[in-house]
Amino acid sequence: MQLKLSDDELLAALKRGEDAAFRQLYAMHFNMIRYLVIKNSGREDDASDVFQDGVIVLYEKLNTPGFELSASLKTFLYAVCRNLWLKRLEKNKRHVFVDFEAVEVAGDEPEEDLAADKAKLRLQLQHLGEQCRNVLMLFYYFKKNMEEIAAELGYTNADNAKNQKYKCLQRLKALYAGAKPVRR
C-alpha cells in the first residue's frame, strides 16, 4: 500500500506525470468537485469532465516556468473546477445555485463545515415562511421554470413568480448571513 503524499510531494509527482500521483489526486479531491457540480445543476459525468479539465489546468500550470502554487492544492483545484463549471453553466444557460452550496476549502474538515452550513440553511428556510419556501424549493430543488411555478402557486404570470423568487432569495440570504430580513 502506498503512503499518502504531502501536497508538495504530490505536486512534484504530478509534474513528473506519475500515474500514482494522479490516482491519489483523484481519490483525495474528486468527491469535493462531484458535490459542487451535482449540487449546481450537474450530473456525475459533468463532474468527471470538469475534474479532468481541472487536473489538466493544474498539470499545465505545474509545467509552466516560474509557476508557484500560492494556495493549497485543494483550494487551487476547487477554484479552477468551480470556474470551469460556472463557465460551462453560463455557456449552456443552466441555472445555478452557488450561494449556499459552495464548499469552504480552506478548512481541514470540509464535510463537517458543509454539514453545518446545510443545517443552517435548512433552519433559515424554515424561518422564511411557506410561500417563499415553496417558491425556492420548486425552482432550485425541483428545477421548475417560472411558468410552472406561477401556475402551481397561483401567481398571475411568470414575471410575478420570478419577482417573488428574487425577494425570497434575498430574504434567505439575509437570514443566512445573520442579518434581519426586510419584510415586504
Question: What brief labels describe this structure?
Answer:
elongated, 69% helix, mainly alpha, 184 residues, 8 helices
What does this structure look like?
By secondary structure, the protein is mainly α. Helices cover 69% and strands 0% of the residues. It has 8 helices and no strands. It has helices spanning 7-15, 19-38, 44-62, 73-92, 110-128, 130-141, 146-153, 158-177. It is elongated and about 60 Å long.
In short, what is this structure?
This protein has 184 residues and is mainly alpha-helical.
Terminal Cα separation, in Å? 61 Å
Q: What is the number of helical segments per DSSP (H or I, 4+ residues)?
A: 8
Q: What is the average of the pLDDT values?
A: 79
Q: Which structural class do the helices and strands define?
A: mainly alpha
Low-confidence sequence ranges: 94-109
Q: Per the principal axes of the C-alpha atoms, what is the gross shape?
A: elongated
H/E element sequence: HHHHHHHH
